[in-house]
Amino acid sequence: MAKKVSAGKDKDMSAQNMGKVKVKILVVTIIMVSLLTLTLLKIGYLQIFKCAEYTEAVIAQQTQASKVNPMRGTIYDRNGKALAESASVNTLICNPQQIEKDKAAEIVATRLAPITGLEYDYLYERLTKTTTRYQSIKKRLTVEETAAINELKDSKKNPETSKYFKGISFEADSKRYYSYGIAPHILGFTGYDNDGRMGIELMFDDELAGKPGSIISARSASGTYMDFQYEDMTDSQKGADIVLTIDETIQHFLEKNLEEAVTEYSLREGAAGIVMNPKTGEILAMATKPDFDVNAYNDITKFVSQAVMLDENEQLSGYNSENKDVQEKAVNLIMQKMWRNKAISDTYEPGSTFKIITAAMALEEDVVSKNSRFYCAGYKQIADRRIKCHKHQGHGSQSFVEGVQNSCNPVFMDLGLSVGSQKFKEYFNAFGYTQKTGIELNGESGSIYYTKDVLSETDIATSAFGQGFSITPIQHICAISAVINGGNLMKPLIVKEIRNESGIVKSYQSEIKNKVISEETSKTMREILESVVSSPTGSGKNAYIKGYRIGGKTGTSEKGRNNDKRIASFVGFAPADDPEIVCLIMMDEPQCTVRYGGTICAPVVGEVIEDTLEYLGVERQYTEEEAKTVTKTVPEVRGFSIEKAKETLTNSGFKVRVSGGESEEGIVDQLPKPGSSVMLDSTVIIYTQEINEDNLVTVPDVSGMSPEAVRRELEDYGLNFEAVGAGLNSTEGAYAVKQNIAPGERVQPATVISVEFRHASSD
Ligand SMILES: [Zn+2]
To answer: Would you tell me which CATH number, out of the four given (3.90.1310.10, 3.40.1050.10, 3.30.70.2120, 1.10.1040.10), belongs to the domain 66-244?
Structure first.
């Protein structure tokens, strides 16, 4: 081209008469001709060599594919209860090419604005974006919104304007519902686009999501756009369903008990708990409290209402500040906190619950037997350190079993030192404490432990009673399961199987990671740990439940050094001789007066285990001693003669008091009413005349009293008594902590007052 131009210029220069204008015209003409030639050449090239590619592009301009969202899979509990499911909702869409830019768009935007709550300008901009045939306007319409928009489109109801709404249409989308409102940290949640953001929703997002289909909007043969006559090119494919190992009912028991504990013991940093089948590694329940509303995952209301002393924390207390910045910062921090699954993400010093592991390794290494003798002077001198027992005056002479029951630190320091650095580290590793468990949930933390080759005597001594390293609750419950299940370290399972319409796609089998100890050692450990709960002097007796054999261990640990922060914990399992369930609960920073795991945690674990075993249909077997305190149902004696009523009640094991004189009618009423459950030996009052409502009794305060004192006190008031809760295996030393009817209330005579007892524990 440069050559041609310069040739032209030469010609211009020789033609003297030509004006400047003419020169310019010529130059432009030459340039244009040259360009045209090149363009023609290029088109020729394209037509010959690039034909196919360009044809596709032209078709793409005529038709437009868009994604059809598939229905997300359901998350079930182990019994087929749908914990997370999707329901269809409408998305409002439009085809701007079917909406005339001025009049139609103005009318449509004006009418849609009040129905959808969207700004007129936003709507107008969407409706007039004619470069596309598909515009999403609003997701997740309510039923009312859909109905109102349908009315606008109805030519009978809106004969004048309905024609403008031709380009307005709906598309099916789905919304996630968590029907039971439980297990938010396990289920997690999905974002606005139905993408998994946390928990199972995140970990199994690929499986749950399904495959999107595509639709194509096409131009008809005559060249006009088809009126949303979509041709579904590929069907969307519903996501697979996930079946969890979680049992909704057991999860509910755990959550209920943890929630109560947070308030009752003022747990500044909340609580976490896990219920697991120790034989299979299946997680039956896992919870962190306080938590969030799984149906409104970024709403902090529930967390704030459950959390204690949020106002003490300078950063978090700003959530209700007037200052927007301060508020936003606090809300963000609270969200991070409330989404945290403490059961797998928090590491803590296990304290005395780790003594289970030390005892198991010592037995397995044969450095101790059940009858070995130990002596506790209240401390043990290790190198230059005097390490104390929690009982400062000392436990004195005791057997190995008593040492475990007493949770005596010097006994475990001795055991640790006998096992030695090398073996201690090997067992620590074999029990799974040096690795993440690999549970299929996001956010699992690893542990913090000694990495040096040889542990000092002080390191071993303190490690032996659970200090100096930090582990996660999930690691700990897996290791403890290995101790009681015959010696196998199981991989924890949270998912049972993945299913689609044609059946099971994948099923997760129990997996033994390690054989850590022998069946024999495991059996011995089960027996010893049962005695920790059942022995009248055992430190775990607050977890005791009538009729069930329970094993367990207490723990109270410091949270950091030189501060007053504590973590109270308890691990319990049942039935002790053949465990079906194991439950670990940790309470983070209790603010109550007594903060020992044995005092505040053991009863909660006891309750979770009791609820669970009852639900699983495990029958209670009472010892002779227990049988005496078992409750019985009061029989119906109304309508009976006095003689007959007395006989029936006495034969059922109740005392009888008659109120009123002889009467032809016989017994007209009774207290407690038939069907009430009371302890044997309770008094039933039978009435020959209508009960006088003025004869009410004031309930006395029995807190702190021994079981015997409570019985006498209530009897004096003409009331009946039922002992409930943990800690009743030995009445000696037990004291009342709660009564079901508050002191001062006025009740009918012979009303049953349920009183909960507990033992003092220093671990
Ligand atoms: Zn001791």
So the answer is: 3.90.1310.10
How far away, in angstroms, is 602 Cα from ligand 1 center? 20
How many A from CA of 378 to the centre of ligand 1? 5
Q: How far is the CA of 391 from the centre of ligand 1 (A)?
A: 6
Going by C-beta distance under 8 Å and a sequence separation of 6 or more, which residues neighbour residue 360?
Answer: 483, 516, 517, 521, 522, 525
pTM, entire model:
0.80
Catalytic residue numbers read 352
443: left (phi over 0), alpha (psi -120 to 50) or beta: left
The topology (CATH level 3) of 345-618 is Beta-lactamase (3.40.710)
500 Cβ contact partners less than 8 Å away, ≥ 6 residues apart = 73, 238, 240, 241
Query: Quick one: tokens of 153?
Result: 């489109």
- Domain at 629-758: CATH code: 3.30.10.20
Q: For the chain, count helices (H), then strands (E).
A: 24, 31
User: Across the strands, what pairs with 507?
Assistant: 497
What's the rounded Cα separation, in Å, for the pair 720 and 318?
Answer: 50
Reported as a single tens digit per residue, the pLDDT across 445-496 is 999 999 999 999 999 999 999 999 999 999 999 999 999 999 999 999 999 9
Strand stretches in 95-212, DSSP E: 135-138, 168-177
Is pLDDT larger for residue 485 or for residue 194?
Answer: 485
Confidence of residue 234 (pLDDT cuts 50, 70, 90): confident
